Amino acid sequence: MRRTSASVLLLIASALLSSCAEQAPPTNTVTEPENDPRVERLMKQRDAVVKYFQPMAIRDGDWLQTQRESGETFEQYIASGPTLPTAERRTIYVQPIGRFTAEQRKAIRLAADYMRAFYSLPVELLADRQLGNVPAEFKRKAGYPPRDQIRTQYFLDDVLPKMLRDDAAALIAFTNYDVYPEDTWFFVFGQAALQKRVGVWSLYRLNDVALESDNQKDRLLFRTLKIAMHETGHMFSMRHCTKYECLMSGTNHLAETDRRPVDNCPECMAKLAWAMNYEPAERYEKLAEFWERQRRSEIAGEFRKKAEAVRAAVK
């Protein structure tokens, strides 16, 4: 995935990058019994919402044109022994680091709100923190005019582990700093360390205008929501989706990210519902309520239809 040309400026790199492809064995695993009635129920509900999603379509420059990924079904996810929240570790903490514009601050707040509905876990938005003095080996000057760019390992190995609470399922840092994972990369939007339960994601480039004619005015909010939900899914061992146009699909550039929906596809919805022990109809209703609060009735209506479909599937 290394880019050495100007095309990297469109990269919407996965926040897990290399750890998406290879993950260490999870520390807390669940083996699902055969013929589990909850699994059978979720399979019916999965099938009930297929009509609301489009099959994956690969365009020039897209993620799956450059990456070989086989995807993962609901059944394969269960069999993989995924990393899940535990009774002791259920809270997702969101830590803003840096100085944010009013628009960025709103996007972070709404991402925390959306995450509560999306994952049915407690989400706590912490008070802002400043980054402080970064050691010289973890920063560089980039761009014109030159600006500080921070290496992701500084957050993952030094800053965030010291802040991690015992009850944290994950600690997610949002920063306004541009970040990079190693010297050969121009930048990334973020990175996470699964076993450490920490991740850092940058808002620095999320308001960039993609080379498309229909850049929406609230693109920062939508991109922030999509990336935050996508990468949190990875922290619970969900792999990239290749079957549908899905929030969990990999993306290679901003225009591809913009095309993705703000919801998981049927396969990924079933994984999430099983992992969080979350009733799909309840989840869809909570997401509809979120979008109603944002005055996006068309999106709320789609979630209401999905709620009705999964209820009907198990009557």
Strand order of the largest sheet: 2-1-5-8-7
State the major sheet. 5 strands, mixed
The coarse overall form would be globular
**Rg from Cα:** 19 Å
Task: Just name the CATH architecture of the domain at 8-24 and 60-262.
Answer: 3-Layer(aba) Sandwich
- Give the low-confidence spans: 1-33
Q: Report, as a whole number of angstroms, the end-to-end distance.
A: 46 Å
SSE order, one letter for each helix or strand:
HHHHEHEEEHEEEEHHHHH
The percentage helix is: 25-40%
Structure write-up:
This protein is of the alpha/beta class and 315 residues long. It has a domain at 8-24 and 60-262: 3-Layer(aba) Sandwich (Collagenase (Catalytic Domain)). 38% of the residues lie in helices and 12% in strands. It has helices at 18-21, 37-48, 63-66, 74-79, 102-119, 152-163, 219-235, 254-259, 266-276, 280-293, 297-313, and strands at 91-97, 123-125, 139-142, 147-151, 168-175, 178-180, 190-193, 198-202. The protein has a five-stranded mixed β-sheet, sandwiched between helices. Strands 3-4-6 form a three-stranded mixed β-sheet. Helix 5 crosses helix 7 and helix 10 packs antiparallel against helix 11 (297-313). The longest helix is centred in the middle third of the chain and has 18 residues, at 102-119. The chain is globular and about 60 Å long. Residues 1-33 have low confidence and may be disordered.
